[in-house]
Amino acid sequence: MKKSLLGIMSLVLIPSLLAGCSGGKSANPADDGGVQTIRILSSDDFAGFREKAVEEFNAKNPDIKVVLDHVAYDQLHDKELASFNASGEAAYDIVDVDEIWTSEYANAGFILPVTDRYTDEMKQGILPASLQIASLGEEIYGVPMFNDVVFFYYNEELLKKAGFDHPPVTWDEFTSMSQALQEKGITPGSASAWGWSANEGLVAYFAEFLGSFGGKFMDETGKPVFNDEKGVQALTFMADSMKNGVIDKASINYNDRQVLDAFKNGKTAFVAGWSFYWGELNGSDSKVKGKVKVGMVPAAEGAPHTAATGSMYLAITPQSEHEDAAWKFIEYLGSKEVQKQQSLDAGSLPIWKDLYSDEDLNKNFAALKDMEKQLEQVISRPSLDAYNEFSKNMQIALQSVLTGQKDAKTALDELVATTEELQANGN
Amino acid sequence: MIKKLRPFGYLLPSFLVILSVTLLPLLYAIFISFINLTKNVHKLDNPKLWDYVGFENFAKVLSDSSFWQAVGRTMYFTVTSVGLEFALGMAFALILNEKFAGRGFVRGFMLIPWALPTIVNAVLWKWLYDPDHGTITVLLATLGITDGHFNILGSSFSAMNAIIIADVWKNTAFVTLILLAAMQSLPAEAYEAGKIDGASAFRRFFSITLPLLSPAILVALIMRTMEAFKVFDIIYIMTGGGPAGGTQVLSFLTYQTSMMFGKFSYGSSLAFVMSIFILIFAFIYIKILYKKAE
């Protein structure tokens, strides 16, 4: 009796297992009834807005069903890299691509060029700088979703309390203001925290300092030059500021998302962050709603006030079986109407030139003018096939200086050497 | 005939499970560590494009300085955490093996850290170490042990040891559990005989308890060593391999190589070298402990 029971169980189990193994295609409910399912993998940053947009799009297009998955930015690249080798439910039609990944993704064929799909209106109406981030060589690989840099936000109320009527213009002024804010007890600890843990944000922050001290990553020939005098000054300033408490010592534990919380609760007076901060800072749960302004990134004497760029775009993968439907959705998110709505709701900067002079937008998006000014002075992280390896090396080098294990010159010299090696190995 | 085949029929379902989730991926990993597979996904479709490199990937692993640094860190983590877990686990097991009021309650309570998912444990300890508000940070400063708030996760050396403490806190319970279970089945006669012969408590521990516990110790040590050598999640959450790469252990390096940099072949080779290390550990343990038991 018992034996036969076991036999039945195994008989039931085997087919279900086999079905599980071969399930991939037939189990895909996507194409039932002519509805095409489009799956998107997106970063968390604008997910709130995108969810709403997806709902609207789905309502307007009964024959397409868009499904949005989103993960924290720090996990996005690795999850995408894994999905490019996957099939079925684990693969995506559309992925969210950071400008620094273009070279890697496009050269490996993970994303499809969409140059032919671009209309003349798009080619002429979208900011050239925005198109640039989604381009490699002659091809365009997607539609940028916003124009983003690491902005310098300040809490006007706290600065006024300390007797300052303007945000810091130079890094020296940033230091003296931070000290004053802390000494007067206006901020409970250091006046700012930065996201300098081992994450991509650290490289973006370094870019910000590098540029605003007058340095750059590569020269015209693509040779790394960030170990020059300017680069060393920038990194030394970062390390010293953390050491003497001008910048929160805990910065080495935070990423570029976690520093938002302290600022949002009025504990710090400055924060450098992406444009989605604006929406968060003016949300209903923010304690600093209406008190925050966007200033120019401080700079060393005579150097430009550069902010690090970090725009993202949506691209179609070759795994997609519904490229046209996928493009329709991307085009919809990139359209003027949705871009405008995104700026109003989430505080992003639109990709269309004429939206910057849009009356309605100027009236309802207080930071637009200030942000536009910052967009004129930017620095980009280098575009490399092996960008992630470069970035990891850089995070280790920067942190070894921030924790006092090495001096800036030694660490940057070593990093330039490994970067040249990476470039030489055909990436 | 059918009678003979029947047992295999019963085994078939579990064999299929093991085949699909363990054996095939394992063989695939072995295979790709001998070719040069990077991010280019289309390569596997066409056998003509397979780029056989023999043991080149393994040679590269062994000559890679970041690999040996990661080995050093992993060894430090493994030896320190397993050592502490074993010492504390043994002490707790001995205490919990004595009769006292509320023993059942304490035995159950002790298991709570072990029942926590590692991720929860990691986030919890990260908060305790928080440089501004962390309980431990503030306590150390208040007691005057550190000069002001010391950022425990802010330097390579202290971060590594802080992670070890978090790991020990969680996994000591596991060692305790195994040792305690074994202690309860030890023969009371041996202890009685020892007492009659006038052996002290220490002597009884070293001459009776330890040798008889050997098999249980073997199990606990092997399992903990393997787990500790593969440590990943707690580091991923608490430091992300930082600061300055100071907590970059082997499995983290492997993850980074494969999943971040897309060097799948090199990553597989790393994983295999790592498995060989673990096998060596297991071999040494078995040699030492079985010899003792004989």
Assign the structural class of chain B, choosing from mainly alpha, mainly beta, alpha/beta, alpha+beta, or little secondary structure: mainly alpha
Shape of chain A: globular
Overall shape of chain B = globular
List SSEs of chain B in N-to-C order. HHHHHHHHHHHHH
Taking strands numbered 1, 2, ... along the chain, how are they ordered across the largest sheet of chain A? 2-1-3-11-6
Q: What name does the CATH topology of the largest domain in chain A carry?
A: D-Maltodextrin-Binding Protein, domain 2
Helical content of chain A stands at 40-55%
Strand tally of chain B, please? 0
The CATH superfamily of the largest domain in chain A appears as Periplasmic binding protein-like II
Runs of chain A in which pLDDT lies below 50 for 5 or more consecutive residues are: 9-30
- Average pLDDT confidence of chain B is 87
Largest sheet of chain B: none
| CATH class category label of chain B | Mainly Alpha
State the fourth-level CATH superfamily of chain B: MetI-like
Q: Based on DSSP secondary structure assignment, what is the total number of beta strands of chain A? A: 12
C-alpha Rg of chain B (nearest Å): 24 Å
Element pattern of chain A in H and E? HEHEHEHHHEEEEHHHHHEHEEEHHHHEHH
CATH C-level of the largest domain in chain A: Alpha Beta
SS element count, helices of chain B: 13
Protein name (chain B): Sugar ABC transporter permease
Organism (chain B): Paenibacillus faecis
Family (chain B): Belongs to the binding-protein-dependent transport system permease family.
Keywords (chain B): Cell membrane, Membrane, Transmembrane, Transmembrane helix, Transport
